[in-house]
Amino acid sequence: MSQKIAESSLMERIVSLCKRRGFIFQSSEIYGGINGFWDYGPLGAELKRNVKEAWWREMTRLRDDVAGLDASIIMHPAIWRASGHVDTFSDPMIDCKTCKGRFRADQIDEIACPQKPSKSVVTCGGEKTQPRAFNLMFETNVGPVKDEASTAYLRPETAQAIFAQFKNVLETSRQKVPFGIAQIGKAFRNEVTPRNFTFRSREFEQMELEYFIPPDEAIEAIAGSVAKPTGPGHPGTPRPDWGWQLWHQYWVEERIAFYGRIGLPRESLVEYWQKPEELAHYARATVDLLFKFPFGTQELEGIAARSDFDLSQHARRSGKPMAVFDEALRNAWALLDDRTRERLAASYRNHRLAHYSRSGVAIGEATALAEADADNLAKGQYIPHVIEPSAGVDRLLLALICHAYAEEGVTDEKGKTETRILLRLHPRIAPIKVAVFPLLRNRPELVAKAVEIREMLRPHMTVAYDDSGAIGRRYRRQDEIGTPFCITADFSTLGENDPSDKDTVTLRERDSMHQQRIKISDLLPFILTRIN
User: Mean pLDDT across the stretch 177-202?
Assistant: First the structure.
């Protein structure tokens, strides 16, 4: 049974393990480090690749309705003006005149004072400055001349590139709404107070999907009605009459199921539905999936119903159309009775008018634009709405490590008790799937068999080879880095103890420490079925 570990001590042990075993290092450590930036070592890089690959496979390769994108980090600065990041993407920052610390005003009670970080988790009682806005975007310059015209930004999120390339992807992928665009990529935010290891960093990676759907008015015109959620849980296979609420519920459940498949069961997550006053101005609903980290329950992923805000903003600012044509909508509209047409047109007109008004368009122009949009709906044209599941890769890796970390007291055959540290990582994402050992490094026959097994498995999975130290110590090393299976070529492998055991090996499972003999010829299918 795992030992109960104090939460503060647990985080210290996890950070220590991550460095000791090559998961995560502080960036630029030999020069004193740089706050908010982290490097992934050999095992961390493998773990990160496995998680991203699992996400990408489920989001794109196993679906017909999602296409992929890999956009540039630096984009035209007008994109960030259209999205609102230039004007509004900021945190309230305050300075302490006593300890000289700099803090986010909304987190002042959560951050340690620089002068007494080990004694208190709150800031000192010194006089503070008034909060002032601090834009989180990293600014840079493009071209040989550094002036206002050359100003650009490192992207603070990956979503806007998807919106900017929406029409290109739609046309070249031959998709039709509803469909999604997925992207994994780096993002940068100049956080005032990066903290909690890799949880809040200045450079991080996102896995985002923008799933585009028709407005409910179009759905009702085509299907006759808009289906609504009937209760909690997965709503099942998508149907043509789904409105935004069911699509939102669908993606919440899909994301929770994904976490379960990589080792974070539903009971380890908290599903938080944002209150109306907490929602972004463009959002109809947002669900935050939270994880119980040792330092508190914090967000892993947000699934937002973003309405048609983003595409509308880019259409208006760029002058390029973002509407799609739906022939089924045009044909269905012609068959509606006058009363239904007027009701649906009025609903769509009011929604579009609200968008233009929130975007600062004068009422006269906003009314005319909304009227034109309603007319276009009758012709089969609309700007899609979007459901956005957005997850942080670095946060997810930290959650997986925290959830997997365990310490157990084990007793050997001599009665000696010691603490076994292990990472119960799901085999699907474990950085090393199997470790291969020769029982003795000075027996060439055993070494040859172990190398043969390694070469047989290596094309199909990540394999480690270790011939250093006692076999028990080698097991402990692999437990600590989360390797689910260890294979030992021993004397029975050579047929020295029992001829019937020839060409069999000892296979040991990490979590149970159970050992069994298995034929070398059966190893590959046995392991593949468990890591997939």
Answer: 94
Distance from C-alpha of 26 to C-alpha of 29, rounded to nearest angstrom? 5
Q: Are 132 and 51 in contact (CB under 8 A)?
A: no
Position 470 confidence tier, pLDDT thresholds 50, 70, 90: very high
Q: Is 124 helix (H, G, I), strand (E, B) or coil?
A: coil
Work out the burial of residue 279: count CB atoms within 10 Å of its CB; fewer than 13 is exposed, 13-18 middle, 19 or more buried. middle
308-325 mean pLDDT:
95
Buried b / exposed e along 212-228 (16+ C-beta atoms within 10 A): bbbbbbbbbbbbeebee
Q: What is the pTM of this model?
A: 0.90
The Cα 126–Cα 122 span in angstroms is: 12
- Whether pLDDT at 412 is above 80: no
Q: Is the pLDDT of residue 308 over 90?
A: yes
At 2, is the pLDDT very low, low, confident or very high (cuts 50, 70, 90)? Answer: very low
Q: How far apart are CA 321 and CA 335, in angstroms?
A: 27
Preceding amide of 92 cis, omega within 30? no
b/e per residue 306-333 (b: at least 16 CB within 10 A): bbbbbbbbbbbeeeeebbbebeebbebb
Calpha distance 309→283 (Å, rounded):
8
Question: Does residue 488 contact residue 505 with C-beta atoms inside 8 Å?
Answer: yes
Quick one: which H or E segment has residue 204?
strand 203-213
Is-contact 449 438, C-beta < 8 A?
A: yes
Question: What average pLDDT does the chain have?
Answer: 92
CA-nearest of 129, 79, 136 to 108 is 129
The pLDDT assigned to 493 comes to: 95
